[in-house]
C-alpha cells in the first residue's frame, strides 16, 4: 500500500493518466488520490502550488520527495520500485533503446494531438487561423501513420516496444485513447485500433479510466476524417 | 573509442548538443560524427531518413541500434555504459527524483526558449502576432526566474540537481547556453550566469561547442531585456 504517496490529478489529462497507470502497474494502490477540477482552475490552488510551483497537474509526492513532471514520476516509480509489479524498463540494452525511443517520441505524438484537440483552448481567439489548424491536423495525421507503421512492423498483439508492456505504453497509451475518444477510425488505422483494444481492458488502464469518460461513454467525432 | 557509433547532427541545435555532451561525458570519443546543414535542408536527406523517418537531427546509431530522440539517446548511453565516464543518473532514489524532475522540466524550458527565438521560423508570416510573441517572451521570463530560483536554493557552485553533474545538466545546459548567446543578462540572473560559467569550460561542453559559435563568437541581443 502506498499511503505515503499523494497524487493530485485532473480527469482525462493524459499526463495525469500516465502516472496513474504507472502507479497501478507498480502495485502502488492505496495512495492518496485527489481529483481536482481544471474547469474550476483548481490546478492553481494553494494545495497544488505548495507542491508544484508551475500550478499544473499531475502533482505527485512520495514522503518528502516531489516529482511533478509525468515522465519524471514514471521514471522515479520504476526506479524506486524496480522489483515490484510490472518491470517497465527492460534489462536488455537493445530492448531499452527501442523503449526509450518510443517513450520520447510519445511526447511529440501527444503534442501533435494537443495542437489539434486543444487548439481553441490554447490559442487566443484573435490569434486563431484556419490554416494553422489545418496544418496541425495534417501533422497529426502524418504522426498517426508513423505509429500505425511501428505497430505493423512489430506484429499482432504487440506492445509499443515489443511483446511486453513497457514504460513506452504507460506514457503513450493515454494519447492513443484520446485519438479514439475523439473519433479516430479503427478501420483506417487497424493496428492502432488493435493496440487500443488490447490495452483498454488491462487492469491498470481500467482502474485509471477517466471518470468523466465513464459518466459520458460517448466521445466526439473531431478526428473521424483523419 | 566508439567507432561503432554514428551521430548525424546540426551546429547549435540544442537536441544535438545534448547527445554530444553525453557522448563526451561517457568517454565515447571517436564516434563517426557528421555535421549536416539545416540551411541546406540536409536533415531531410536520404542519409538521415534511412535512420530517422522524422528527418530530424540528431540521428544516432550504435551498431544496429537506432536511438534518435535526444533524451532517448542520453538515457540509452547512460544505461549501456553505466560504469564508464561520468555517472549521469545517481543511485540514490531521492537524488534521482530531483534529477528526473529537472531533466523533464528541461523540455518545457527549451520549448519556451524556442517559442521566442524561433518564433518567426516556426510560425508562417501570415499567422504571426505581436501579442503571441509578447506572451511567449513573458512565459520565457517566468520560466527563467523559476530556474534562477532552483539554482539559488541549491547554493553556489551547484549543478542543476545537486553538487555533481547529472543527466539534468547534460540536457538543460544547451538551453542555458542559448539564453546567454542571445543576450540574457548575467547581472539580472546571477545564478544562471554562474552556472553557465561553471559549465562552459567543462571539457565535454568545450569539445562539443557549436562550431558556428566558434566562428562567430559574438551572439545576438534578442533576450537582453528579459
Automatic annotation (TrEMBL), chains A, B:
Biological process GO terms, please?
glutathione metabolic process; L-phenylalanine catabolic process
Question: Which Gene Ontology MF annotations are present?
Answer: glutathione transferase activity; maleylacetoacetate isomerase activity
- GST C-terminal domain location is 92-220
One Pfam family named in its UniProt record: GST_C_3
Q: Which InterPro entries match?
A: Glutathione-S-Trfase_C-like (IPR010987), Glutathione-S-Trfase_C_sf (IPR036282), Glutathione_S-Trfase (IPR040079), Glutathione_S-Trfase_N (IPR004045), GST_C (IPR004046), Thioredoxin-like_sf (IPR036249)
Which ranges carry the GST N-terminal domain? Answer: 3-85
Cellular component (GO) terms are: mitochondrion
Q: What is this protein identified as?
A: Glutathione S-transferase rho
Organism of origin is Kryptolebias marmoratus (Mangrove killifish)
